[in-house]
Amino acid sequence: MSTAPIEPVRFTPIATEDLTPEQQAVMKLYRSGWQAQLTDLPKHHWMTLRSPKFAAAVTPVSNYFRNESSLPARLNEFAILLTARHMESQFEWGLHSKWAVRDGVSPAVVDALPRGGKPAGLQADEDIIYDFVTELLDTKRVSAAAFKRAKTLLSDQQYSDLVCVVGYYTMVSMEIAAAGVDVPSWADTVAAAKART
Q1: List of residues 6+ apart from 158 with CB closer than 8 A
Q2: Over the stretch 91-106, which tens digit does the pLDDT of each residue have?
Q3: Taking the mean position of all CA atoms in its chain, how far away is CA 96?
Q4: Homologous superfamily of 73-195 in CATH?
Q5: Measuring CA to CA, how many Å separate 111 from each of 80, 108, 131, 188?
Q6: Cβ proximity of 11 and 50 under 8 Å
Q7: Residues 46, 52: contact at Cβ < 8 Å?
Q8: What is the DSSP letter of 117?
Q9: Which of 37, 83, 65, 79 is closest to 176 using CA atoms?
Q10: Mean pLDDT value across the chain
Q11: What is the pLDDT of residues 128-167, one digit of tens each?
Q12: Residues spanned by CATH 1.20.1290.10 within the chain?
């Protein structure tokens, strides 16, 4: 594990009595969405809560990608994992690696992703998602060939949801990094994956 000191959390929870009416409304959204299943509110939310209109606008997007995306859950989680790996977001990796396995991604594939490169053992649809998401993140473009291949698998709505879930979790990874969430470094995630093989 990394020996670098963990810095203090940059944004602390706001006491209930100190919440503005707009922040109270956001907290109600959290309690009615997927976040309600978590023991504690993720710490980067305490940063975004400082911008309650944004938090209120983006929370339904989070709920959409957790519960309503047109992508099959396995492919949705796989795309999130690829984004977390690209962004080196250990926090997102910690959550979504478990959910990806729950939804049918092979544990061996999940374990291989932090080490880089395309894992062996991808299902045919995962191979398409891997190539598409990797090209989008690495080149910031989608080639005609990548679009054509993706559309052999995805409907128009699924294609849109795939692009947007990658964009959404890129943003979330940036929020987490900027909020200074106290999690192990990505190097620790990679080292742990290597140790298991």
Answers
A1: 70, 71
A2: 899 889 999 999 999 9
A3: 7
A4: AhpD-like (1.20.1290.10)
A5: 15, 5, 18, 13
A6: yes
A7: no
A8: S
A9: 83
A10: 89
A11: 999 999 999 999 999 999 999 999 999 999 999 999 999 9
A12: 73-195
